Amino acid sequence: MKSRNPKLIIFTGPSGVGKGTILADFFKKVDKKIVYSISNTTRNPRDGEINGMHYFFISKEEFENMIKEGDFLEYACYSGNYYGTNKKFVEEKLKQGKSVLLEIELQGALQVMKKCPDAVTIFIKPPTFQELEKRLRGRHSEDEQTIQKRLLIAQEELKNADKFHYVIENKVVNDAVCELIEIYNKETA
User: Fold this and answer.
1) Is residue 184 classed as helix, strand or coil in its secondary structure?
2) Which residues of the chain have pLDDT under 70?
3) Burial (Cβ within 10 Å: 0-12, 13-18, ≥19) of residue 60
4) pTM of this prediction?
5) SS3 of residue 61 by DSSP
6) Is residue 3 part of a domain?
7) Euclidean distance between the first and the last CA atom of the chain, given in angstroms as a whole number
8) H or E element in which residue 102 lies
9) Is 43 contained in some domain?
10) What pLDDT sits at residue 2?
11) Domain tally for the chain?
């Protein structure tokens, strides 16, 4: 198998757009020369989420200590919770010749884009704002106040799509996955 050119890939989009669904299918279909960067977060796990697989769930105090130590490539506070990417993990995987995919919030994506201008940047958007709202409500994981807050944030996030190299519309999940695979193959060739 031909070796790949390791890349840092930034993958973002509004909450509820289907990032996790797309990535679950993507990672089943691509080679093992790309790894998913597991973020740290201070939010509570949702049903079915496993510590160390979906996120590293840590306390606010632990997170703030990591900020002081400079352990994050990026971090952001989103909907009252911290999220951050462990810098050492990303650097080690790239040195090993593996691409690293960061699934991060927009604030963090913009931070990494400044620090790592060679990163491949991908923004996932919904087919319509109404569909995004339907998906958020369909998760049944948050109260109305949280949903309204996420929708307000999403409106602002969608205005930033043009700052990314690629924009994928998640109308049909399989089509979005195929588009992501094409981008990955092109960028790491």
Assistant:
1) helix
2) 1-3
3) exposed
4) 0.87
5) helix
6) no
7) 12
8) strand 99-103
9) yes
10) 58
11) 1
Tokens of 100: 């690293």
Name 104's Cβ contacts closer than 8 Å, sequence gap at least 6: 10, 11, 12, 39, 74, 76, 83, 85, 112
d(CA 21, CA 7): 22
As beta bridge partners, residue 72 has 86
Q: In the block, which residue shows the tokens 């588009």?
A: 179
**Amino acid identity for residue 98 in this structure:** K
- Residue 100 φ/ψ, nearest 5 degrees: -125, 125
Handedness of CA 125, 128, 131, 137 (dihedral sign): positive
> Is 142 within the bounds of a domain?
yes
**CATH no. for residue 120?**
3.40.50.300
In the numeric block, which tokens belong to residue 110?
């913009």
Q: Is residue 152 part of a domain?
A: yes
pLDDT of residue 138: 87
pLDDT for the residue 142 = 83
For residue 25, the enclosing domain spans 8-188
d(C-alpha 57, C-alpha 106), whole Å? 20
